[in-house]
Model the fold of this input.
Amino acid sequence: MREGRELFANYDVSFKIPGNGSAHIHMNSYLYPFDGKLVIVTVISDLATDSRVHRTCQTLLENGYRVLLIGSLKKGSIELKSRDYQTDRLKTWFKSSALFYIEFNFRLFFRVIRVPADIYLGNDLDVMPATLGVARLRKKPIVYDSHEYFLGMAGMDQKPLRRSIWKFIETRVFANLKYIYTVSESIRNIYRRDYQKKLKVVRNTPMLHTGASELTEE
Done:
C-alpha cells in the first residue's frame, strides 16, 4: 500500500470541491479517513493504466476524502494492484460500439446509486449520463474532468450521426454543470465558447514530476 502512495507523493494539485453532509457507508480499507466525505469517481477505462484518474483519487484521499473509483473490466484487462482507496470494475457483455456505452452507463447507474455519496466526479463525457443522473437524483454536487475534447476525437467527423448524438449528450450535460476542469487551455476555450462555462485547467504531468502541477483559471 505504501509504495503506491510514495510513487505519487510528488503530484501536488489541489482544488476546492463543494458539498456538505456526511457519508453513510462503511468501507474496509487501510488508509481511509472514515469521517471524510465520500467522492465517487467514474471513468470508462479499466483503471489499470489511467494515471490521471489515479492521481486525482490520491489527491482526494490525501486531502481527507474517502474515494470509490469505478471503471470497466474488459477482456485482457490486467490485474489491478491494491490501492489506498476502494475500486470497482464493471463487466459488460458488449466490448465496443454504441451498445458498449449504453450497457456500461446502465450498469454504472445502478452501481453508483447503491452507494450514498457526497460528491460525484465524472471523467469524460462517456460516463456522464449515468454519473450526472445519480448526482441529480441525490441532489449532490457533481464535478466533471474532461480529459480531451470528446467531439474532436479521431474519426468523429466521419460519423455525423454518432457525433450528433454525443453533441446532444454534451449539451445536456453541460447545462447541468457548475464545476468543470480540463487538461489544457485550448479545450477550456472551446467549452467557454460553446457553453459559456468557467473551467479550471489541471495539467497532466509525469508521475515523478517534483514540482506542483500548474492550475490555472479564467
Remarks:
- The longest strand covers residues 66-73.
- The first helix runs from residue 2 to 7.
- The chain is about 35% helix and 20% strand.
